[in-house]
Amino acid sequence: MSRLLEGIVEAVRLIISLDPYLLQIVLLSLRVSITAIIIATIIGVPLGALLGLKTEKKTRLINKIIFTFMGMPPVVAGLIIYLILSRQGPLGVLGLLYSPSAMIIAQVFLASPIVTGLTMVGIRAKGGEVEETARSLGASSTLTTWTVIKEARYSLLGAIISGFSRVVAEVGAVMIVGGNIEGHTRVMTTAITLETRKGNFELAIGLGIILLIISFFVNSILYNIQKGGKKD
Amino acid sequence: MKIRNKGLLYKLILGLMILSAFLLVAGCGEETAPAEEPAEEEETADEPELIDDYITLATTTSTYDSGLLDYLNPIFTEQTGIEVQVVSQGTGAALETGARGDADVLLVHDRASELQLVEEGAFVDRYDVMYNDFIFVGPAEDPAGVGEVSTAAEALTRIAGSEETFVSRGDDSGTHRMEMRLWESAGIDPAGQGWYLSIGQGMGDTLNMANEELGYTMTDRGTFVAMEDNLDLVIVLEGDPVLFNQYGVMAVNPEKYPHVKYDYAMMYIDFLMSDEGQELINSYQVNGETLFFPGYGLE
Amino acid sequence: MKGIKKFYDKEVLHIDSLKLIKGSIYGVIGPSGAGKSTFLRIINMLTMPDTGEVYYHGQPFPLSPSERLLLQRKMALVFQKTLLFKESVWNNIAFGLKARRYTRAQIEKRVNALLEQVGMKDLANRYADTLSGGEAQRVAIARAVAFEPELLLLDEPTANLDPSNIELIENMILKLVHSKDITVVMVTHNVFQARRIADRVIFINQGKVVETGPTEKMFNEPDCESTRLFVEGRMVY
Hints:
The complex is a heterotrimer. Chain A is an all-alpha fold. Chain A has helices at about 1-15, 20-55, 60-70, 75-85, 100-135, 140-150, 155-170, 170-180, 190-195, 200-230. Chain A contains ten helices and no strands. Chain B is of the alpha/beta class. In chain B, strands 1, 2, 3, 4, 7, 8, 9 and 12 form an eight-stranded mixed sheet that branches. Chain B has a two-stranded parallel sheet with strand order 5-6. Chain B has helices at about 1-40, 60-65, 70-80, 90-100, 110-120, 150-160, 175-185, 205-215, 220-225, 260-275, 275-285, and strands spanning about 55-60, 80-90, 105-110, 125-140, 165-170, 195-200, 215-220, 235, 245-250, 285, 290, 295. Helices cover about 40% and strands about 20% of the residues of chain C. In chain C, helix 6 (about 165-180) links the parallel strand 7 (about 150-155) and strand 8 (about 185). The interface of A and C includes residues 129, 136, 138, 139 and 151 of A.
């Protein structure tokens, strides 16, 4: 019991003193996950919008595939990306394995289906009506699509944030493709795993607290957005 | 739906019961057959009465990954009925787990730390149970020329000098601690160097990364031999006496943690230290190579 | 302007021939499910007829998307289930003008003038989701007339509204139409509303145009028996 308390006190001290090791890990985590979510957004939002504007009948098979990928266990994603990037893999020549780029690729792989799927659902909910309203007011197809996306902006932000929450907290994929190399590919989740195994709880707790704070922050935004979507 | 699932569940449980009953009978049969003669000599109360319990063994990844425990533990369980639940970690974490009372018995390899912790009262009944050796492995081309030298210190000096990639466990395991001592004795501080990758993972992951990155690493022979088929790495250095690695077995101190299963832990230790146990360790081979040698191997 | 419109739809709507005359207010009446909404959607090109053609200014509806867009921009449709964009009232009304690439200054001038005309200046900065049903419907109509379409299609503009709101909206429609010379086709299930507003009435039943004519004639001495029954409030089958 006192051990946990000591751990928390020490962890808070590490956070407040901006311990360089801890800071570096947090910054790398954010860099990797934010980059991944930006790429996933670029892929997922237009794709989700496109699918969302089609009737459900036409995209039934694609829906099933996307929903399957949305629930993919991170370690499986990690394994797939590992095999692709490994020296014997099809993209082995790029030499990307065990680099932040590899982690970004794995996280894009995890986040894109979530962003796509949730965008699709969000757009499908109101997309048809918005589309007809825009067209009836003389909007071109470009403006119509843009309006549909804009009208679904709360769902889209929700989709993006859900994707981010998932990748920033996952450990399986980044461990496999990043390799948890100190100062190079060590992120919050892999560091927590390692420090716990080493019995070095202060750092693990410190990182855990930061991860919780980020999660709280991100979910607060999500909560406010969803509230804003109803009334503002 | 529910009823069907329930049916399935019952069938599964029934199946497992039948299976375990079968295994138990088989176990008894084997036990009683050769034990019949001596059983008559001893007391009748000492019939093969199996203990239905388990102990938790905190150990290092090397003993587990090499397959040794999968070889030894079923024999122990067959003889005593005690299941062995294995928690495999780095030595540092395993010692920590034991020192917190979260395990009953330890099988680790960091002699200095072990003796110190026994001194401090965390563990009791420590024995030198077996040893293996560490080796240096690297790409077949051996760009750092490690194959031309014969001591670990020279090998590390060459790797550092050529700035070839070296993958370190970095997980505070016995292997990692040994590696750190070797760097120290070579007078090199590799921390923070671009070619030095500290990854905080197990031996298998470390070997995989060295394989992928065309780098060097230090490994216990057992894990390397077990994984050799999937690796392009070759042994570049072996046989330096400083690379011998002593394993110790010890029980968690029951005076400090009354809840630990000290009696069962001692049965496990006695099993490993018995002539039979030592012979079993010696006979365990992977790919035709003996990985662990019984007893005390230093000096 | 002479608009000749003719279309065909096997299941829902079957119209052999129908002309709409510029500058009139048409009331489209008929029982639920008669095909009134489909009728509007086909005029607006949101739904394509399976066979037949619609003519506009004597020309058949064009097939190329760009030409169609140009033609579509001369019309506006206000749906039965109004959807306002999640923005301010002002931005909602400006939408059609923005779509037609009016300059910022033109948009401001027109939107402000329209808000003034329909007495909704105080609503300008309100967020769409905070409006009442009646206010939302008025914004939707203002949004549709802001770019001064030649043809305004209204689908049940006062459904589910209380009498005072209905009156507000009817007055608004009349005011706008007369000041801007817009042809209106208004679908309504309410025959009294058609009588109050429309110059001419189209009676649709079971997907067919039964009768069309000036409002007074349709209510007082219709040619068809079923029209007479319907305007008297009795059902026809």
